[in-house]
Design goal:
Chains A, B, C, D: It holds the Pfam family PFK. The structure is a homotetramer. With about 325 residues, chain A is an alpha/beta fold. Chain A folds into two domains: about 180 residues, 3-Layer(aba) Sandwich (Rossmann fold); about 120 residues, Phosphofructokinase domain (Rossmann fold, 3-Layer(aba) Sandwich), CATH 3.40.50. In chain A, about 40% of the residues lie in helices and about 20% in strands. The first copy, chain A, has ten helices and eleven strands. Chain A has a seven-stranded mixed sheet with strand order 3-2-1-4-5-10-11, with helices on both faces. In chain A, helix 1 runs parallel beside helix 9 and helix 5 crosses helix 6. The longest helix of chain A has 22 residues. Chain A is elongated and about 70 Å long. Chain A starts with a strand and ends with a helix. Chains C and D meet through helix 1, helix 5, helix 6, helix 9 and helix 10 of C and helix 1, helix 5, helix 6, helix 9 and helix 10 of D.
């Protein structure tokens, strides 16, 4: 029987992490389970930094970005000693289970700890990148799209006013979820992301021909290319320079950066986080171990933590086709 | 073979309708299909108000609320004469098919026209209320949630500062989708919507006991009750007055109203609208008739227009349970 | 010499109050002055609810609406006994001075206390209504305008889509600052506020003629009238009904309500609050008493607390003229 | 007597330019003056690209960023031939006067034209940078502050979650208005702008000591430095790298870029733009020539165009002092 659980947020922070913490704490309280929150991700385990989490500690945090527990990356966990030390900390606090909110990298850390720990471990997918198998969406993804979209809409204003070409680089590590979604939603003229054919210095014409076509045939007053980070070998600024030279028109690069991680979570992220945080506690009570709480086709479901990083989830093929054959025709 | 289609927006406007129009026009153009846009919903058919829609007419409209085609309700269509006249207008313009963007009321209008019209008819679900069967979400719903949420977050600030009780009335006609989603996302202390047990003057204690419980046990500094319109016989303002009297604490009502229909559509609505607008054209080409283009479990799919108003879709039972047993414990 | 001061927020909360508290606390700390924050406005004085405020207590509060000290109205202060008791509380805590953040009603409360208190009292104007003499702008006014504007822009979307007339009621107690500013900024077709000629049931034609004129001559697709609260005897909803009947067109009323008090303060409010909070402490050190810290023509300056409610400040005559003779021509 | 005027937007676009165009067109119409709008700044004069502007052309543009007339920089104007050609175009269209909306660079262009043109010329200050003498604020400045602030608040979330140091570069060409205002409003721990002592590779310790001090003494969980563009010789990214190395803590740079130019204008910009656009027309009627319409101490007033680039306006000394001695203590 579960009497006492730990919870922590790990890796890049994502809007909605606080909503997940709140839901887990309220659900635990309703089931008479005590909750300990560790600070700074796994570092809190290693450094004994933690606090009791009661319902009053999570009042009115649902609307805030970041994470009240702080987050961090934790290199020490990648050694067997580190993992063993973390497991020991969990047992010293008599924790029957622990909830890890983060991405697949954090879940790998959790699996290392599991080798030394007798309690249950469950993951909750929290990352703006959406690159976690076993759930249609990760906590933070919806907010990151809207943050990116808001920025692109603003740049559209100035691009239209100036009849200029802008390249806007979005986050996503090695996946194109944010870029494809924000690009479609912004009506971007072109989208470049890792899942599409790579753009290299020697095939710039694949980018250039549609630009020339659009200006000739459709009288476009602005032209926006959204680019996932890590899409062009020398970086997006270099790509903008190469394009400027090839086209003879000024192309400007905007690197959107860390604003995509913060901000008030949108409704979709708060709701997903609430469901996953609550479901994680309920599934721990039901005995789940080494699983991730996810939502697939509107249904809450479990997925093996060990498979969350397999990268089998695909970006939406309908949107890919729409963008490549219709929108940028 | 489809050579020429009509398109119109009908009923209450919803953020994302412009994105659906744009996607339909671009997809039609890519398939060498001409598009005629009718103004003011079905009235444009009856009054011969329309315009040609080329790709340049839909540039940079994806980010705007409202609808460039205008919308309206149309009583004339509810007579057989009206429907016959509308059908005649479609045929006079040699339209092979027509796309109706609206809710189930608008789809009933489309079905009346179909009795007199030889072309194909397809629906696209556009309403903030989400009360249309055959699609998980309607265009505009996601934006309406975030608009409501933004307002509730603001009222939370002042409720917290003043330690007051607020009742916030949200839209939804006779369904609780917006209210449940926005209420969960806002961390509302109570949620009242048509799908829950009705609140009547003689069972106010069901509302009151949790308020007293929360103040005694949990030291809540504010208390927010979100209420779907049409939930209390005499209206939300009367409910606030009844509560004030019963509790001896000032309870204020806020009727959020029409701001929920407008505003820049969020990413989720723009993406859904883009997919449904494009898919509607593709399915017309494939022969679809008297169907609605929807998305169920991440898959685009068709659903009979005649069944879209059956009200078999349910609000999320997990969220209902969470709210009733956990959040307001 | 000032060693120890109190601070409180009183009356309706306003975005930026937290920024003023933060600036006062940081400025006091830099001058080796201790700060006590009272909770719930003057009630905290009477009920002995307060806390020490150190710089770490005001970290990262500048971006939040509401007030960390809570606010309230306090009827007990309006009796001589209440004021004497409050003064006693200040002296029991050995406070050399107290900062009151609020509107002119709160300043009257402060003046009552002053009759029994030997320390210094300074006011900081915090109210969304901007109806305080001695400062061009009050803390919260700029944010309230933008909140109202955001709502009106959203309603414009739906008004345009439906070609409807909307009446939008804004706050302001008995002044038209918010209404005039938001109305001008929204491009409202008409503005009704206490400073303009009153609209009564028997002169509705003054409203109606411009509407008919606009529709005939200028093909307006929507018509928005912003109305300050307390402008029409029977209320804005009744006014909308009267207009609907007179025009034969549906006119809808939206009562914007309390969302205007909350939300993240905009830059202008955070900057003004920072300056006034800091300046209040500096002026206490310099010996100020029974004054309000304000900003007039970009210059920080003091103004007698006793005159802050004289209502000599005027709404912008240029904007009034523009609206009445040009915008609604 | 003025019968016919031209209007154009020039240089970097700024939110509120559309509001200024609208106000000028409505005011002109009320005075029976025709208006011609040139496209792409001065290029529209040289290339004969223009349109008639009637009140219906400026309906519902007040809420949009960018400029419906498009903007551009125009090198051709810097030659005497270019200026003469522009003047000829104005006279060929029988324009009695022309309104130039832009910054001091655009006003220099206007002065060159004046050498060849018999009509009147008036300027309206539109630039986010606020670096124009003769007006307290330029159109677009208030919106740019809030856009920057929104981004900094988002980065604060992630900086807090990660306990990291961020350097955020804001626009402003060679002035620190945006940076100082946004930095104060965001509660930035440090502000670097051209008006402050320069930061160079050999005096990095001036930056570093306060960081170390804050972490030791005040337990700051995040540290944000806002940096005006052009403040560090090798750029903000290089500065972040230098800091990272010196501190042994990861410091990240965010270059906010062009999102600062776009977006819905905030209320303050719409109101200022409305007043200046209207006032410019009224002053042309009154005979003004080679003047800029500005607002100083809440009063509309004229200022010689030739002096608008003198850079005598200062950033707020009170805020400078506050930041340097109090906020970053």
């Amino acid at each position: 029987m579960i009497k006492r659980i730990g919870i922590l947020t790990s890796g890049g922070d994502a809007p909605g992490m606080n909503a997940a913490i709140r839901a887990a704490v309220l659900t635990a309280a309703a089931n008479n389970i005590d909750v300990i929150g560790f600070h700074h991700g796994f570092n809190g385990l290693l450094d004994n930094e933690y606090q009791t989490l009661l319902p009053q500690h999570v009042q009115h945090i649902i609307q805030y970005g970041g994470t009240i527990l702080k987050s961090a990356r934790c290199k020490a966990l990648y050694t067997s000693e580190g993992a063993a030390k973390a497991a020991k900390a969990l047992e010293a606090l008599q924790l029957d289970a622990v909830i890890i909110i983060g991405g697949d990298g954090s879940f790998r850390g959790a699996l290392s700890i599991a080798e030394h720990y007798n309690g249950q471990i469950i993951g909750v997918p929290g990352t703006i990148d959406n690159d976690v198998d076993g759930t249609d969406y990760t906590i933070g993804f919806a907010t990151a799209i809207d943050t990116a979209l808001d920025a692109i809409d603003k740049i559209r204003d100035t691009a239209d006013a100036f009849e200029r070409i802008f390249l806007i680089e979005l986050m996503g590590r090695h996946s194109g979820y944010i870029t494809l979604s924000a690009g479609i939603a912004a009506g971007a003229e072109q989208i470049i992301c890792p899942e599409f054919a790579a753009i290299k210095p020697d095939n710039l014409k694949d980018l250039i021909i549609p630009i020339q076509h659009a200006q000739l045939l459709r009288g476009k007053s602005s032209y926006i290319i959204v680019v996932a980070e890590n899409s062009y070998p020398a970086g997006t600024t270099a790509l903008a320079e190469a394009l400027s030279e090839a086209l003879g028109i000024e192309c400007r690069a905007c690197i959107l950066g860390h604003i995509q991680r913060g901000g008030r979570p949108v409704g979709a992220d708060r709701i997903l986080a609430t469901k996953l945080g609550a479901y994680a506690v309920e599934q721990l009570i039901a005995g789940a171990h080494l699983m991730m709480a996810g939502e697939v086709n509107q249904q809450l479901s479990l997925y093996p933590l060990a498979k969350t990083g397999d990268k089998t989830k695909q970006i939406d093929p309908y949107l890919v086709r729409w963008q490549q054959y219709i929108a940028s025709d």
